[in-house]
């Protein structure tokens, strides 16, 4: 486990279950998989070295849930940095506490929650270049049709979105081919047919956008089955993750009471968007509503 010098901790006691997850520069892995010499993402969002590991047995494990719905598991000896009400009132940055100490002081005397976790830092992951630009992926996940034709549905006045998509498609010899009503079609601009036959066919497709989407497992996915491929979160630079988020917000985003919102009917992708925002040092949470006829 990493040594935390800022809070004068020489070692971090208080184990977590072997199946608990820890974030690395390639995504989440289980505690069980870590060995001395590995690196994990530290509190400043950068790699820290795992100095060693230890095994424990016969420990009670507690489920910890935050107000944003995040869940993790730890023993009562596990250490956390939290800011309680008194620390906040006296402008202190917070201190290290065990799970048991937090449990024993979970609520302040006024009945409100007493402990606050610090915001996550921006995470630095191992970057891998991708043929399909993350902004284009965000736009397609937000307002794209990924079936027989690859189209983007957007208002005609949103020309800056289409212009940006067209420019970013150039490296894969693709572009915006035309518009029908508000549906912009994406496809090859190098003379090849945009259908699954003939030369330049990779797998089932000749359309370069379809080829890349097929590699990502996104072809023929609909609004409720779309997802963000993990490499666009955990093997992406900070700027690439911002571009992915920009694409999602430009198509499915709104601003409500000073906060950015994305409204989708896809629980899996909702949690992935929260994760994306968290890796950028932001805070996000999910709310739901029932829009069925019976709920009116």
The average pLDDT is 87
What's the main sheet like? Answer: 4 strands, antiparallel
Shape: elongated
Number of helices: 8
Q: Which percent band covers the strand fraction?
A: 15-25%
* Helix and strand run: EEEEEEEHEHEHEEHEEHHHEEH
Tell me the distance between the termini. 51 Å
Helix-strand category: alpha+beta
**How many strands appear in the DSSP assignment?**
15
Strand order of the largest sheet: 10-11-13-12
Layout of helices and strands:
Layout: E1 21-24, E2 27-30, E3 39-41, E4 47-49, E5 62-65, E6 71-74, E7 79-84, H1 85-89, E8 95-98, H2 99-104, E9 115-116, H3 134-143, E10 144-146, E11 150-153, H4 159-169, E12 174-180, E13 183-188, H5 208-215, H6 231-234, H7 238-252, E14 253-256, E15 259-262, H8 267-279
Antiparallel strand pairs: 1-2, 3-4, 5-6, 7-8, 7-9, 10-11, 11-13, 12-13, 14-15
Helix pairs in contact: 3-7
Note down, in words, how this protein is organized.
By secondary structure, the protein is of the alpha+beta class. It has helices spanning 85-89, 99-104, 134-143, 159-169, 208-215, 231-234, 238-252, 267-279, and strands at 21-24, 27-30, 39-41, 47-49, 62-65, 71-74, 79-84, 95-98, 115-116, 144-146, 150-153, 174-180, 183-188, 253-256, 259-262. A four-stranded antiparallel beta sheet has the order 10-11-13-12. It has a three-stranded antiparallel beta sheet with strand order 8-7-9. Strands 1-2 form a two-stranded antiparallel ribbon. Helix 3 (134-143) packs parallel to helix 7 (238-252). The chain starts with 20 loop residues before the first strand and ends in a 17-residue tail after the last helix.
């Amino acid at each position: 486990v990493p040594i935390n010098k800022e809070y004068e901790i020489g070692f971090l006691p208080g184990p977590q279950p072997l199946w608990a997850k820890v974030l690395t520069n390639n995504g989440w892995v289980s505690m069980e998989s870590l060995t001395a010499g590995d690196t994990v993402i530290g509190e400043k969002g950068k790699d820290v070295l795992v100095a060693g590991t230890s095994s424990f047995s016969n420990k009670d494990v507690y489920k910890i849930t935050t107000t944003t719905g995040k869940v993790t598991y730890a023993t009562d000896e596990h250490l956390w940095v939290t800011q309680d009400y008194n620390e906040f009132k006296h402008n202190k940055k917070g201190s290290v506490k065990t799970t048991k100490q937090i449990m024993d002081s979970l609520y302040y005397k006024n009945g409100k929650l007493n402990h606050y976790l610090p915001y996550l830092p921006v995470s630095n992951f191992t970057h891998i270049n991708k043929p399909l630009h993350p902004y284009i992926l965000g736009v397609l996940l937000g307002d794209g049709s990924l079936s027989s034709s690859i189209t983007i549905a957007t208002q005609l006045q949103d020309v800056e979105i289409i212009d940006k998509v067209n420019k970013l498609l150039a490296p894969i010899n693709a572009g915006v081919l035309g518009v029908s009503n508000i549906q912009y079609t994406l496809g090859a601009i190098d003379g090849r047919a945009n259908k699954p036959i003939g030369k330049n066919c990779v797998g089932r497709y000749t359309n370069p956008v379809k080829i890349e989407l097929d590699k990502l497992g996104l072809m023929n996915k609909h609004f409720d089955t779309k997802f963000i491929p993990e490499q666009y979160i955990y093997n992406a630079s900070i700027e690439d993750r911002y571009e992915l988020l920009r694409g999602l917000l430009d198509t499915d985003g709104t601003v409500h009471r000073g906060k950015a919102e994305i409204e989708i009917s896809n629980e899996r992708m909702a949690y992935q968007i929260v994760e994306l925002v968290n890796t950028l040092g932001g805070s996000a949470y999910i709310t739901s509503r029932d829009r069925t006829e019976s709920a009116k």
